[in-house]
Design a protein that fits this description.
The structure is a homodimer.
Chain A lengths: L1 H10 L1 E2 L5 E2 L7 E2 L1 H15 L6 E5 L4 H11 L3 E7 L8 E8 L4 E8 L8 E9 L3 H12 L3 E11 L4 H7 L4 E9 L6 E2 L1
Helix pairs in contact in A: 2-3
Chain lengths: 189, 189
Amino acid sequence: MQLLQNKVKEEGIVLSNQVLKVDSFLNHQMDPVLMREVGKEFTQRFKEHNVTRVLTIESSGIAPGIMTALELNVPLIFARKQKSLTLREDIYVEKVYSFTKQESNEITVSKKFINPGDKVLIVDDFLANGEAAFGLARIVEQAGAEVVGIGIVIEKAFQPGGRLLSEAGYRVESLVRIASLEDGKVTFA
Amino acid sequence: MQLLQNKVKEEGIVLSNQVLKVDSFLNHQMDPVLMREVGKEFTQRFKEHNVTRVLTIESSGIAPGIMTALELNVPLIFARKQKSLTLREDIYVEKVYSFTKQESNEITVSKKFINPGDKVLIVDDFLANGEAAFGLARIVEQAGAEVVGIGIVIEKAFQPGGRLLSEAGYRVESLVRIASLEDGKVTFA
């Protein structure tokens, strides 16, 4: 997606070989027109699947998620992240490890909102090791629903998440794929 | 806003005299068409102020915030909540107490994204005691910018936040105002 690639070029800040900061349009300040275009692009790529729900995770997934849900005219659900949790019968829980923050979170979704037969599109802002996407997919499958695909705004293609998700049988569509952040610059795949 | 009031009537769950659960369209599952209408309504009410930024707080403020920002064609910034924080020079920090969770959080906004002269519209999903809205307003003022108004999706008008914000000189526009949750039912103001 050219518009997004330009934005990454112009405003992305390479903090290390692993970390790209895009807090001017995606992770803290958000560009609503760009988010709407992201929603349209995911809709274009996944519309043949008769998506019934978009699922994302707080917080940076919500803006691209709601724009995709608007375009597809289906509800958005966002999973919540929590440090630890009293077990409850009415929620799905999965453990997700964050390599960036070096901590585990539990992600939760109320059982009310994903049902057997649902066709769920997972949307997230970043894909690196795939931990969050796998956690969301496991929740969909716990619910007896189907993951029709995974839409990612920015994939760090030098990390293994995209490959692992594809090998597990998921269709992954990343709007921008980054091959490397070495030498302080962004190289696209 | 009639559409929103109907939704509260049909899907809101009164958990106690203080707590209304609206997780089927606002706090966990989100209705994107309703969120777009919320964005249009806030735009209608505040457009004469030449808003340059919309400011909200993660996570449930992001969907109404991005739709408002889209309609106004300005960036959205969402404040992050954190338990405690190493002081840093590049962020504004305010302490916010949550009566619901009975804990304090620090809310933060990068100094890059609010500048002197900005006209900031604060948007949030709920207004109860006003702690979050006051915290966001203090951040705007720390930045030397102006709060042009506060747009609230659902105000619990039996709690003091709305009155306190108005007394402090802020213009508060709540799309739905709830007078009481007593006897297990929602009474609108």
